[in-house]
Structure prediction request, 981 residues.
Amino acid sequence: MNHHLPPGQERLFAARHHQDPFVWSHAPRRHTVLKGVQRCFPRPFMDNLRPPQFRAPDEPSSLVGGLRIGTRDVAPPYWPPLPLAPPTLHPPPIGALPTAMAHDEESDCFMLGEKLSKKPKRIRTRVDAGEPRNSYSAFSSLPNLCGVSVNAVRPGSAPNLFSASQSFCGLPFVNYFNPPPTAGSRGMLSELFGAHTKPVAPCPPEDTVATMGVLDKVTSSNVHSADAVNSVIRGPEADNVLLREILQGRKREILTMEEIEAARSLHNNNNSYKGAAEPVETSNEDTNAAREESVTAEDPRCESEVEETMSQNSPRTDSPEPRKRLENIVSVIRSSPTPNTTVNGCKKRKLYLPQQHEARNSYDSQTEEGEAAAEPDNKTRRLEEDEQVESRAPESGEEGGLQIDLSVRRRSPETQRAPSPKPPTSTSSSDSNDASSYLLDYAQRLLRTQEARQRENDLKNSDLTEKLQLLRNLNLNSQVTDLEGLADVLKTEITASLAVIIDTIVNKYVQQRKLLTKQAEVAAEQLNRDIASQLMEGSRSPRSHKMLDRTPPNMPRLNGMPAPNGPLNLSPYPGSENSLNNLNLPHLRPPMYKPPHFFQGSLPPMGGMIPSGQTSPYGGMEPEQDEALPLVVTPKKKRHKVTDSRLTPRTVGRLLEDFPRYGGPLPGMMGPASPRSSPPPPPMSHHPHHRPSSFPQPPPLLPVSLPTSVAIPNPSLHESNLLYPGYYSTHRPSSPLDGRRDESPAGPPPPHHHPLLHPALLAASSPDTFSRFLHGADHDRASDCSPADPHYDGVQPTISFYSPQRRSLNLPGPEESMLTHSSTLTPMHLRKAKLMFFFVRYPSSSVLKTYFPDIKFNKNNTAQLVKWFSNFREFYYIQMEKYARQSLSEGIKNADDISVTFESEIIRALNLHYNRNNHLEQIPEHFRYVVEQTLREFFKAIQEQKDQEQSWKKAIYKIIARLDEQVPEYFKSPTFLEQLE
DNA sequence: ATCAATCCTG
DNA sequence: CAGGATTGAT
Prediction:
């Protein structure tokens, strides 16, 4: 807006607004005009708060007169060789800020209050307020669904990585990923969702009883069998209990539903089975099949058990009834949580529940049955009718007639049985062969789904319906004998169609399996590679240095860099006060940690492949699932991260020699605190050896993705950098502020400390060495492997692929770079921007232009740059809030007790994010100060419950926006950029 | 209607 | 980090 104003006006405008908040906020108070209130905040404030440089690019620090706070602007232009004006200017903030802040906050609150009352529109959930914003949060927020899936999973059994996805995906697949061996959980789940696979295991009577019994008994109020009850009760499995609870919880609802039907059925039929709950619906193929299966069970005990249960529960209803209930449950469960759709009652954006649709389809038939009452659908009704007919048949005719018939029917197509969807036979076989069991399991589920669909269709518009009708008629006439014929017809029909389905499914599965096996192999290799790459990644961050340090860097080093054997290198653990443990706890994971999870996740585990027993039940859900998982599971899309600041060989080399200023080990960050941070993988052992095989770089699909503005395909991009995902939740112990209050006196930040440029950068300034290095390092860089690793050669091909482009695009000769006015932002630019963030959080476009002289700015790249900073800020503030909350939870009472030092975790975290490669050897003191202030602001706000308000952060933003400082002149230097390579 | 910042998500 | 949705200001 300011741009539209003539300089003079702009100035006035800005100035006025800047001060307005104070004026207005006091005057109008509470009862005042909303208009005024609003104006206090919004855009103007931000705009005005920004340093003048932000303003109109065309208007050099013009605001001088108007702004008080903007003093900085007046400060000596660039490159204050020595502590100049800025220093003195900063101090004021301490004293001045508080007061100013107070005002601001007041006004803000005031405004906020007004706003709220005025329009309670947006009730956003502050996701960023500590809770991870990723899918995990979504998961955690999932209500019932999750509860079921998670709880239902047997604690001891495999950590089901995909419990979340399971919940989304749809019940049919639920236990698909779970190891079959656990008959208990398995059976229960399958019952829950299918009721098809009743007899889970032929033998284990207890299991059988438990699974069958649990549901039957739990869901039906008519259980008298002591055995059954006992089995239910004594069921060691916690899940039994949970399930029971869940089911019972639903029971009432279900019963009520059923009661309605029951009432009806009572009139129609004479069934007065136990109590009132007699499902109108009757046994269908599934149940019959199941029954038969159980009967056929080899183990006498099982048989007897089954029979017993059957006999105890009404012959007909035992299966159908629970089934129906289950269906109801499912439907209820399904319908209740519509995650994501609403948060705090607010509808957000497009809903994202892809799988749910899928799931929906698969269930439709089932659910419809259950929902028939509530949702009179022609389809459903017919279905119901048919089923009723079926159920009635026996009653009218000979008791066992239908049953026998059905059993026969089942048997006759002997061949069909195995693949047959519901036939429990599959389960029996599963015992012998895990793999096959999985397959069968899988097939079963798929079939079930398919079948459901098909049944729907058939019933809907096929002759099957007609036949059923016929059947009904026949039934009515008590012409049971004809039933057999019909049964056969039906049987053939169904089996025929099923056969096809089954075939397709099996084929599908087989294919998948093949893929999986391949993937598994690849994964195995990749695991190694993964480790290696992780090392690499780690090396990007200061913390991993230790490891790398140890490896004798045979890599080319930058001039001026400490010799490999230099003092620095000598100690694996750079002489920081940090202890070994810290050093040794890079975020690298133990080699073995991943496989289990991702396998499970990615696909149905091969038989018994991964006994993922010991990991925590929710292991899979752990946020740390960052790197490894993607490897296997993600051949898919990777959003081109145009810019990538990952370290390149060169930087690695650099890193190897000198450890970060912030000391190798980030104490709190990865250290003891983070559980998963596993012992440093034996750096040397893995690397060298596995390299060759593992190295085939992840298919450099990079070129493919260059959608956006920033061009440069960066070989190293093939990975998203999940930042320290786990911190918030996991990190605990040491105060984020990391003690050391001593060092950071609240005193004004020292004068413009020019952060020391990393030696490497300085060293690189000599062209010859630089270029030399450049060439030398090229390979490594492309390979993205540890510099220390000699084997990176294997990657050559891919390298060559990139090299050309990169060269032309990114690496203009040192000399030319200056001249090259590209409009594309490269990864180096990103790094530079990040470094700039240490000085300015809210750079104006003019500043950006000034400091990216080699960029030909246009709308796009400008926006991109702006976006970058926006992202930086986002991260920054998230961190701030996180640590603020943490310190609050640690019992800190006074905001002033919070102090930030360069050793503080926050700083480390930030450094890791913005200065991974430590191009900036020393974080500017002022930044430290800013962080401290920010932290305190957040702390105060949170402490005062301000975080309950809508845009409580704005006030803080406002404050922080004022703390920008001048970006060092040398950022403008073309060589600087080059050195960031 | 347009712009910009933020929020949210992938 | 980027894209898209939201929100609020102008």
